[in-house]
Amino acid sequence: MDEESRQLRLRMLAFVGITLFGAMFARLWYLQALESETLQQQAIGNVLQPVFEQAPRGRILDRNGRVLVDNRVVQVVVIDRREMKRRLPDDQAQDEMFLRLAEAISRSGRLTKAASIKRTANDPQYGPFDEIPVAIDVDPSLLVFLGERPDEFPGVSVVQRTIRTYPYGTLAAHLLGYVGPVTKSELEAANQRIDPTDPDAKTYQANDDIGKSGVEKSFEDDLRGVPGVRWLELDYKRNVVRERDGTPPVPGNDLWLTIDIDLQALREQQLADELRNARAQTPSDGDPPFVGAAGAAVAIDPRNGDVLAMASYPTYDPSKFVNGISRRLFREVTSEDNHVPVLNRAIQGAYPPGSTFKAVTAYAALSTGVIGPNGIIGTRGLYADTGSYKYPNCVEQSSTCVFRSPFSGTREVDLRDALTVSSDPYFYRIGGEGFWPLPKGPDEGIQHAARELGLGSQTGVQLPYERSGVVPDRAFFDSQFAAGVAIRDGSQWFAGDTIQLSIGQSDLLVTPLQLVNAYATLANGGRLHQPNIATKITSWDGELVRKFEPRVLRDLAIPDSVRQPIVDGLLGVPRKDVPRGTAWRAFNDSSFGVEFPLNNWPVAGKTGTSQKKGKADTALFVAFGPNDNPAIGLNAGLEPSIAMVAVLEESGFGGSVAAPVVARTLDAVATNSLERVRTKDELDKYYADLVVAAAKSADSAASGSTP
Q1: Each residue of 34-90: pLDDT tens digit?
Q2: Distance, CA of 94 to CA of 96 (rounded, Å)
Q3: Which helix (H) or strand (E) element contains residue 452?
Q4: Residue 472, CA atoms < 13 Å, CB-side half-sphere
Q5: Cα–Cα dist 70/57, whole Å
Q6: What pTM was estimated for this model as a whole?
Q7: What residues does each domain of the chain span?
Q8: 3 state SS of 235
């Protein structure tokens, strides 16, 4: 190839290269200069924005399938903030619209302030596409009123949502709990636990409800449904282009509780009635008044740990929390002056158990040999109760060495009798000479036994905010001293502390649930259950999701040689035999309590009266049944199926105030005469029928005809 041909080819290749690069640069210039804005709009225009719809919460039912908490469809006034600001960009125009809206909502029957609507509508926690709720459960007529005036209320509409409803009113309020609007901290904490890639994730939005207390809180993850989602396609200016298909909300799971609502109703009624009776008592001269304003009552099944009823007084109305709680209502339910109605005293009330603790001391003494053939006294050994006890090893032999009982007189008692008549001196001696200075029993043996029976720690029931109580010992004294609460530390634990502890005084504190669970453990032979409040979880369409089996924390395997003397002593408490038990009137006098069928359905129980200076005594009674009772020849192999406790603050003696609450409730169980409680709707219909019947009777009487 000659030089001229080579040059020609190079010139041709250069021309082709320049042409190609020119075309490429021209295209790049076209895309960047001429089509830049169009392409940017297309690039960012296909944005999908999710809008969530809250799902109905699962229902809550009792053990027999009766609905305790349900959902109700209501009308909710919502504001589309984006649409409102587009049509009313001026703040003054918005304020005027808020005022008109507040007036319209208030006229429909739900008082609302314009300032409240403005505050909610401008809340930064709501997203730009959220429908912001400003009034819940409004009259349906408001839908028509607002719908006919879109120009007066731009961005305002009425939608349907579900809220909680309570067919039985305030029954079991503390147990059920309540829901309320999710707070910012709750929102962040809840969404941190959720996998956002999960299509069934139960994500939370700013206008969602969340469980605040009771099982509504502890079973929040089960009761909450999967939110529905709508997808909005937005352009680059965040304008909605179209709405794409989404997914409907899926209702939450149903929660089945262990409680029987009929038994619950009777427990609450008996507790309230007896507190009212306590307030009517006239104190002796110089004694503090009987306040009788608060208390708790719990029933559980010793066979499996199921909570059958849990009452706390005073109570509150959970329906008032549905739309959010006002400051005034919050003060009412949390005020000490109102005795803190929101407090669940069954698990949050901490009380000195008084003489109900004597069964624990007896268990400690029998299981360690303090009472027994080689102990300080035999099981049948008699002790002369003279109304006081003098600690024999007291150095100074002063009056501080003498521990007195409020009951005077001389009587000889063995262990069984000491439980039946609640002999303080008998148990003073067990504490003072049996567990101090430790000739027979182990160091802190009473405390160890109490902890074995579940005292001093949370029971583990599936409810929030449970208290642990206190079983005082040297370590407790050390902690209190270090915190600046107490003036002495563990090195100053003296014999008097153990003596006082033996009858349930000192710094000992228990919750009602702990106390009844300890007695249930004695009833069933030593199985300490973690109480159950739920039996199962089912899906909204009835499929079983999860079942709750009995939970045994520990099996003490209490031998008959330890258990039977205690139960025998407790069996005498409700009886009027000799010796007469401290709760005999509650079980044998219909004018005071009931005529209970003790010979067919024997009850083992224990009264307690805890004292606090300057206040009336707090009354306690705990019992279980039915039991064999060899003393009356009943050995039918009965297995206790229910254990109950009642605690009435500042109300008097356990035998005269707390025992009747338990006696009347156990009587309905023993005689199978528990009445069915009506729902609010059933009660409304019942009274409406009475009114109609009365009107017909009046018309018949006026016309002279026979109805």
Answers
A1: 455 554 555 545 677 777 888 999 999 999 999 999 999 888 999 988 889 989 999
A2: 5
A3: helix 445-452
A4: 24
A5: 8
A6: 0.88
A7: 49-257, 261-670, 681-707
A8: coil
